[in-house]
Amino acid sequence: LINQRGEFMKKWLLLPLVLISTQSFAQFTNESELGVASANGNTKTQTFTFKQLNDYKWERNVLGLRSRYLNASANDRETARFFMFGMKYELEVSNRFGFFIGETLEKDKFANIDRRLITDAGGKYRFIDTDSTKFFSELGYRYMDEQRLDDTSAYSNYGRFFTEWSNNWNKNFSTKYWV
Fold first, then answer.
1. Which tens digit of pLDDT belongs to each residue from 156-177?
2. What does 69-108 look like in DSSP terms, one character per residue?
3. Residues 137 and 162: beta-carbon distance below 8 Å
4. Burial, 126: exposed, middle or buried (Cβ in 10 Å; 0-12, 13-18, 19+)?
């Protein structure tokens, strides 16, 4: 029993060391956005937005977490409510090419969407990948399962193409374009 307990303790003491060593080789990036807009005049409007983007990179792996929230009202009547949470895993096969798989959950009351699950899988190619400029394209497959507020549902299959170019012009100014 003591030997088993000793082996058990060694494993639990070794686990934090493994996690710490993995952390030292990992890179965590974060982008957060919070927006509040209010206007009073002929119409009283309020808009609240929140966006969170996190990427956790280690070796040739990237785990991305995305979330967005939007709530808007006009004259104390709700006019928009949207929520999205997504998770994406990428495996970099080379400096230019990789594979990805992702899952996204969306809810949009005013688009009649109670729950939309989106599954993406495909390949990613990086044309430019420097500290200041990034340009890449993704080509893949998308499956969508949508449950609507009116008790109907929809299922769709798509081919998916996405491209994005971003540039950090200086420490305080950047641009991003995507299609």
1. 999 999 999 999 999 889 999 9
2. EEEEEETTEEEEEEEEEEEEEEEESSSSEEEEEEEEEEEE
3. yes
4. middle
